[in-house]
Specification:
Elements (H helix, E strand, L loop, with lengths): L4 E6 L2 H9 L8 E6 L7 E6 L1 H4 L9 H7 L4 E4 L2 H16 L11 E5 L2 E5 L1 H4 L3 H19 L3 E6 L2 H7 L8 E3 L5 H5 L12 H9 L5 H6 L2 H8 L1 H11 L16 E11 L2 H21 L2 E12 L4 E12 L2 H18 L4 E9 L2 E2 L10
Parallel strand pairs: 2-4, 7-8
Antiparallel strand pairs: 1-6, 1-7, 2-3, 5-6, 9-12, 10-11, 10-12, 10-13
Helix pairs in contact: 4-6, 11-12, 13-14
Length: about 375
C-alpha cells in the first residue's frame, strides 16, 4: 500500500489567535514579539500576520525595526501559555484523523503549530481520499477554533512538509509519487527541507543550484563532500525518497483545555463549574490514551487581555481526576485572592505526560 503522510502548518499561529481573541485587530498589521523587558520594544518579532509581512516585517527582526517599518501596527507580547492551550486542542483534532497503531507512531507534533500524521490506512493509499481528508481537517479546525491552516500531502514527511508551504495561507497541496520530479526538480536546493544555508552554499559552489542538479549529481562526489550518511541523504531527498518514521516525542507533550466564561467575573461560583468541566475534558483525553501527568497549570486571561499562569508539580505521575481538580482549584483560589480585574477565560493544562504502566496505585482511584 502506498504510504500517505499529511503535514499541517497553522497559519501565522500566534498572530491569528490574537486576531481571533480581539476582533478589533482584524484588518490591521499584527506583530507578536518576544520582548526582553529592557525597554518597550526591545526584543525580536516572533510572528506576524500577512498584512504586517506586506510592510516587510519578518520573524526574527528586531521589534524596534518592525516599528519603523509600520508605526501603526499592533505590537503584542508573546503569550506562550495561552497559545499552547489552543495548540493542545488543534493537536487533538489532528490526532483523531491519524491511523490508529498500537505503538502510537502515526502522529508527530514537531512544534506548537505543526504536526505530521500518517493516513495510509485511513485512505488505503489513495491520494484523492487523502485530499478529501485534508479538507475535512481544515474545515474542522476552522469550525472549532476559527483558525486556518495549510496542508501538505505526500508519500513521506519530506514531501508533505514542503507541499504545505506551496499555498499559504489556508491552502492544501497534494504531491503523489508520480509528481515528485515535477514538484521537486524546478526548486532551488535551498528549498529542500533539511538543507541549511551552509549546505546550500556548498552545493552551489559545486555547481548544484536546482534540486534537479542534485538528483543528477554523482553520489560518490556527494559522499566525498558531505560524508556518507549526509551525501546519501542528499541524493535520496532530491528524488523524493524519505523513509523516516513518525515518532511521538515522549515527555514533551501537554494536554489542555481553555474556555470563555459566561461573563467577565471574579465569582468563584461561576468559575468553578467551568474549571471542573475543563479538568474533566483533560482527564478524558488522558484516559483515552492511557497517560498520567505530573504538572498542573492553570491559566487565566482577564478582561484587559492580560494572561497569568501558575503551575504545580506533583511528587509522582498520576492519572486521578480528583488530584487534578484539587490542584486546579487551589491555584484558582490563589488567582482570585490576588486579582482585582475580572477574568474572561480560564484554562487547565497538564504536562510531563507518561504512559501508564502496570497496575494503578490506590492514589489513582
Amino acid at each position: 500500500m502506498q504510504r500517505v503522510v499529511l503535514h499541517v502548518d497553522m497559519d501565522y499561529f500566534f498572530a491569528a489567535i490574537e486576531e481571533r481573541e480581539n476582533p478589533e485587530l482584524r484588518g490591521k498589521a499584527v506583530v507578536v514579539c518576544m520582548l526582553s523587558g529592557r525597554s518597550e520594544l526591545s526584543g525580536a518579532v516572533s510572528t506576524c500576520n500577512y498584512i504586517a509581512r506586506g510592510f516587510g516585517i519578518r520573524s526574527g527582526m528586531p521589534c524596534s525595526r518592525a516599528k519603523k517599518l509600520n508605526p501603526e501596527a499592533a505590537f503584542l507580547p508573546v503569550r506562550k501559555e495561552f497559545y499552547t492551550l489552543v495548540s493542545d486542542r488543534v493537536m487533538e483534532i489532528l490526532r483523531s484523523y491519524a491511523d490508529v497503531r498500537e505503538n502510537g507512531e502515526a502522529f508527530e507534533q514537531i512544534s506548537i503549530d505543526e504536526a505530521f500524521l500518517e493516513i495510509t490506512e485511513k485512505t488505503g493509499g489513495d491520494f484523492s481520499l487523502a485530499f478529501e481528508l485534508g479538507m475535512q481537517i481544515k474545515n474542522e479546525i476552522k469550525e472549532k477554533e476559527n483558525l486556518t491552516c495549510s496542508v501538505g500531502i505526500g508519500p513521506n514527511k519530506l514531501i508533505s512538509k514542503m507541499a504545505s508551504s506551496v499555498k499559504k495561507p489556508d491552502g492544501i497541496t497534494a504531491v503523489s509519487p508520480d509528481k515528485l520530479e515535477s514538484f521537486l526538480w524546478p526548486l532551488k536546493v535551498s528549498k529542500l527541507w533539511g538543507i541549511g544555508d551552509v549546505t546550500a552554499g556548498k552545493l552551489q559552489e559545486m555547481g548544484i543550484v536546482k534540486i534537479k542538479d542534485l538528483a543528477e549529481h554523482d553520489v560518490i562526489d556527494l559522499v566525498s563532500a558531505f560524508g556518507k550518511p549526509r551525501g546519501i541523504w542528499l541524493k535520496q531527498a532530491a528524488v523524493g525518497v524519505d523513509e523516516s518514521p513518525l515518532k511521538e516525542r515522549e515527555g514533551s507533550e501537554q494536554i489542555g483545555r481553555i474556555a470563555t466564561l459566561p461573563e467577565d467575573t471574579l465569582d468563584v461560583q461561576l468559575i468553578s463549574p467551568l474549571l471542573d468541566r475543563l479538568a474533566g475534558d483533560v482527564i478524558s483525553k488522558l484516559n483515552s490514551r492511557e497517560l498520567s501527568f505530573r504538572t498542573v497549570t492553570v491559566t487565566v486571561i482577564n478582561s484587559n487581555f492580560r494572561m497569568y499562569t501558575k503551575s504545580r508539580t506533583l511528587n509522582h505521575p498520576i492519572s486521578s481526576k480528583e488530584v487534578l481538580l484539587e490542584a486546579a482549584h487551589e491555584i484558582m483560589s490563589e488567582f482570585l485572592s490576588e486579582s482585582h480585574v475580572e477574568f474572561r477565560r480560564v484554562g487547565v493544562r497538564v504536562g510531563d505526560l507518561q504512559k501508564i504502566k502496570g497496575q494503578k496505585s490506590l492514589f489513582d482511584y
